[in-house]
Amino acid sequence: MEQSPLAIYQAYIDKGELAYQWSPEAGRAVFYPRVVCPYSGSTELEWRVASGLGTVYATTVTYPFQGPGHNIVLVDCDEGFRMMSRVEEIDPMAVKIGMRVKFRVHPAEGDQPAYPVFVPAEGSAP
Amino acid sequence: MTGLRRGGAAIVGAAESDLGQVGPGFNVIDLMAQGITRALDDCGLTLKDVDGLLCATTQSRTSGLNLSEYLGISPAFIDTTILGGSSFMFHVGHALAAIQLGLCNVAVIAYGSTQRSIGRQNASVREINPYETPYRPFLPSTAYALAASRHMHQYGTTRGQMAAVAVAARQWALLNPVAWEKKPLTMEEVLSARMVSYPFTVRDICLVTDGGGAIVLVSPERAKSLKKPPVYVLGQGQAITHANISSMPDLTVTGALESGRQAYTMAGLAAKDIDVVELYDAFTINTILFLEDLGFCPKGEGGRFVEGGRIAPGGELPVNTNGGGLSYCHPGMYGLFLLIEAVRQLRGECGERQVQGAETAVAHGNGGVLSSQSTVILGTAATV
Questions:
Q1: Burial of B146 (0-12, 13-18, 19+ CB in 10 A)
Q2: Cβ-based interface (< 8 Å): residues of B facing A
Q3: Chain segment B138-190, per-residue pLDDT in tens
Q4: A interface residues, B as partner, C-beta within 8 Å
Q5: Cα B264 to Cα B219, B268, B294, distances in angstroms
Q6: CATH of domain A51-126
Q7: Which pLDDT value is given to residue A83?
Q8: Which domain holds residue B301?
Q9: Mean per-residue pLDDT, B339-353
């Protein structure tokens, strides 16, 4: 049985790596992982491991009805793909567009598998 | 959509169902049927005349079947395209095509929602996205907040400018007897309300109400013999750019740029020719984005444009004259109400909030998280 794009992606995360797909035909990164390249229509997609470095493209703090707010960002990864994530270790409102961030794994909890989050990259503190 | 004929169909009937909080036990098909019978009364047609049915709701998986059975009709043409709140503007394009091709003669477009009565989470079941859900976005608010953050960063748009959109909408709502909100709203009240997803407080975000409605479309020839002055479909356009906010190419530019271009081209009109502007204001940033993308001001200038009451009653440009999704009514997929208001403005039926001498209107629908955009341009008999 063929492994799903999500299963392969998750296996990388589980060993501490942020993976994305590379489309040789389109010459660009593809994210989220899928079975066909949305830029070229090609099904030839290679898996690559990202450096884990990126730049905050957009940011918000979402407040539940009770309890503190949590950060949600879109990160432009250096390899040319964008993903939703969260910047940790600083006040959620202190996360700024343009901030350099670095990937780490947020460990699995209950039914939620491990997933990628970001922390400020060194030298990027505002 | 190319091949559609300018003025190839006219909206001849338009009506809301009950709005706000409907009576206990009403379901979405009841509200669609209520909207359809009222819209048919509005133009003097009956259910027996209806041979085209277009509808969308999040609360009935096969709404086309349920609604046909309920009404006792077997439509020759049926379309249940669902792309979020803009679905009904897409339907207008499809109805226009169907009428032009002779697939049907009398098309009704209907909507219903009881999300206030049954709860938003029950009305629209949240889909799991393994690449977004772990971050606990409160959708759609979080997604639009991300777009707002980007607009603020790139163009210096402020929370005060966004609040001006909410204040203008409330001023219009106070002129609309069926609007949900009945009290004035100040800039300060918008800014100090409960924060939902920065930069949005609860007053930057649309209402959660029940509601539904319908419009009736026929050929321009048939339209002339009906009760009310026909409102002609001069232009229609549509664009889909993404589904999830993490896949939106540029968070400051929406598909309205393309849908508007198509609609203006078909209509042979430009933003400067439009008298009444109805924009899908699920969030205050929407009004700003769509004013820009539909050419009412340059990209990045939307925040400054809405200052000083420019889009409020008595301002230079009448925008969201019913009070909008922010203050009049927002049952989840609001697009149909923009079309209803545009029709009423062009007929001169709007009482205190009537835009004098209105001959052209734009009704712009938005769906998902800025994902689907569809623009409809309407005009009176003088414009065809």
A1: buried
A2: 130-132, 134-138, 141-142, 145-150, 153, 194-199, 244-247, 251
A3: 999 999 999 999 999 999 999 999 999 999 999 999 999 999 999 999 999 99
A4: 6, 10, 32, 57-64, 69-70, 72-74, 82-86, 93, 97-98, 106, 112, 115
A5: 21, 6, 9
A6: 2.40.50
A7: 98
A8: 138-206+235-383
A9: 98
